[in-house]
Write a structure and sequence with these properties.
With 325 residues, the protein is of the alpha/beta class. It contains 9 helices and 15 strands. The protein starts with a strand and ends with a strand.
Length: 325
């Protein structure tokens, strides 16, 4: 099968299309013919060894010191079940599914084998494979964080980075939960963010939400430039800072600061569940959660897809698609 492989860290062109063995499903696994996968900020970070502040020392232990440990990237995808192991009962060949291997990666290829108990669910019936893929990473991440500080009707939620893959999902989910939502983005996305449900939009080049005097029940930090020190005064007493992109300082001190301030500061790891994927699919079928796609490239142009992510200005998700005979 064709797969996008990188054997050294560096710019987008370190990724090459290679022929690698097609996986054979084990008794408890399903073999999925992938039709679409995203190129996410996580793929960028692993490929470029571009880590949040403070993680430069620890990162190589996980990513590889001299060469990548994970040579095949891709955290999420959508496709069709082609074959199943003899112990699989949940899925059948022909099922259209979307899936999230997460840190196991492996979606930038024509096929993937996953255990039926992994994060796999039937994809939303009303969405294409590319559209379904665009919900997975941002949707599951934002859902997990918003549940840590349950949003009530009337709460005020600010999403920093409202046009990105996590940010656009956070806007839609917070609005669905009943919040009054403020989205922070660039001027060029000032029309998109309200279309997703934001009640207010802040152009970060014009106004600094952290010093405006306005306070929020929850701030969802999707960019990496709003640490607690900067935004503390913008959080209401008992409110929350939900740090989706944490640096080392946030990881180490979030619990201590939570105890000291009475505000929830969370930068902990998260795990999706199958129930999360099923819930996101339901919201998509009901028209509550809409896909946001920046651009679509064939797998052969995955270098261009990585280059687009590297700009830091993608809107929503960058998707690669696979062509099968």
């Amino acid at each position: 099968m064709k797969a996008a492989i990188y054997r050294r860290f560096g710019p987008p062109d370190v990724v090459k299309i290679e022929e690698v063995p097609k996986p054979t499903p084990k008794p408890n696994e399903v073999l999925i013919r992938i039709h679409a996968a995203s190129v996410s900020i996580a793929d960028h970070r692993l490929r470029a060894k571009d880590l949040p502040e403070g993680l430069g020392f620890f990162g190589p232990l996980a990513l590889g010191v001299f060469r990548p440990r994970k040579k095949l990237l891709g955290m999420d995808g959508a496709g069709v079940v082609e074959a199943i192991g003899d112990k699989v009962t949940k899925f059948q060949p022909g099922d259209e599914v979307y899936f999230l291997p997460g840190a196991s990666f492996g979606c930038h290829a024509e096929y993937i084998a996953m255990a039926e108990t992994d994060f796999i669910a039937l994809k939303p019936k009303n969405l294409s494979f590319a559209e379904a893929t665009s919900l997975l990473f941002g949707g599951s991440t934002s859902l997990n964080y918003l549940r840590r500080k349950p949003v009530k009707p009337g709460d005020e939620v600010l999403v920093n980075g409202a046009s990105g893959s996590c940010g656009n999902a956070a806007v839609q989910l917070a609005k669905h939960m009943g919040a009054t939502v403020t989205g922070v983005c660039s001027a060029k996305n000032a029309d998109l963010v309200p279309s997703l449900g934001a009640d207010h939009v802040i152009d970060y080049a014009v106004e600094d939400f952290a010093t405006s005097g306005k306070t929020y029940d929850a701030i969802v930090e999707c960019v990496g430039n709003a640490p607690f020190e900067r935004v503390n005064n913008a959080i209401k007493p008992g409110g929350a800072l939900l740090i989706i992109i944490p640096n080392l300082k946030a990881i180490l001190f979030s619990k201590r600061r939570s105890r000291k301030t009475g505000k929830l500061i969370t930068a902990a790891d998260w795990k999706a569940t199958v129930e999360d994927l099923e819930y996101l699919a339901k919201l998509a079928e009901e028209g509550v959660l809409k896909p946001v796609i920046d651009s679509i490239y064939p797998l052969e142009d995955i270098v261009k897809a990585h280059a687009r992510v590297d700009t830091g200005h993608k809107v929503g998700n960058v998707i690669v698609t696979m062509e099968h005979d």
